[in-house]
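Box 3.1 A note on notation
Throughout this textbook, protein chains are presented in two layers. The first layer is the amino acid sequence; the second is a token string describing backbone geometry. Keep the layers aligned when reading.
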Amino acid sequence: MNDLKDKKLLEIKNLTIDFFTDDGKISAVEDVAFEINQGEIVGLAGESGCGKSVAALSVLRLIPQPAGKISGGEILFKNKDILKLSIDELRKIRGAEISMIFQEPMTSLSPLQKIGKQLIEGLKIHNPGINKKEADEIAKLWLNKVGIHNADKRMESFPFELSGGMRQRVMIAMAMLMKPSLLIADEPTTALDVTIQSQILDLILEMQAETGMSVLLITHDFPVIAEVCKKVIVMYAGKIVEISDVKNLFSNPLHPYTSGLIKSIPKINSKTRQKLYSIPGYVPSPSDYPVGCRFAPRCGSVMEICKQRQPRLISIDSNRKAACFLYEN
């Protein structure tokens, strides 16, 4: 098919990311592989510490060094391996072709610079010939697009003078200035109240519809996944355990971990009071992963083979993959 949505924009192959600590090497992400097509909204889900954010940061080569290292794999963006690009080539992609919204805008916005200066700085980096008036107008336009009115005043504001929701809107404006092909949104609603969360998600969807960009939405919130995404990648303890379209993931999850996460979602419309389900046990530390399947100690369907070796991520049908010995036959 020639439809844009059938073309690969980002393809990650066998990605492994290690961190070197006083206790030795720790694999935060191991043998991760997935792809995002043009115009597609993909959710990357899992509990805190499973490797979601680390995997996303690697796309822009933002893994902190020397503590962290991309030890293996490929990250193909528009068929070019990001891991092989020079620093100058990489700078042309960051912020222009691929943008990122971080969890907490106060860690991403400089507290010492006005909002306008921070917005215009990104424009000038990628458009050296742009004059100040043009840059001002583009920055104000995007502030209005993300729902920040009285843009003239806000351009003169410092981040601490804005609410959390407004700071997150500034981050979205900053990410969208160059109309990127791929937007990575790392827990973009975590620090916001429910009403603002909904507004921010609607805003991301609106921007996606307007520009046709692809979105990688990183979250541990499955209701958000259900509302926004078409495809979901589920990670556990540094590895992908399931990839599925949203509809099938919620109606018939394949991996026991995914099933447990979905059962943990509170049922608002339930007429009877029920104890909220929780997956037994704890996520293992990266320094102490079990020998076999990393979910085996918490799994209700565990078999002997699960304790002996790790399952492969295999195709179940054209839209679904799972890493579980329940499907190896």
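The CA atoms of residues 114 and 158 lie 5 Å apart. The longest strand covers residues 8-21.
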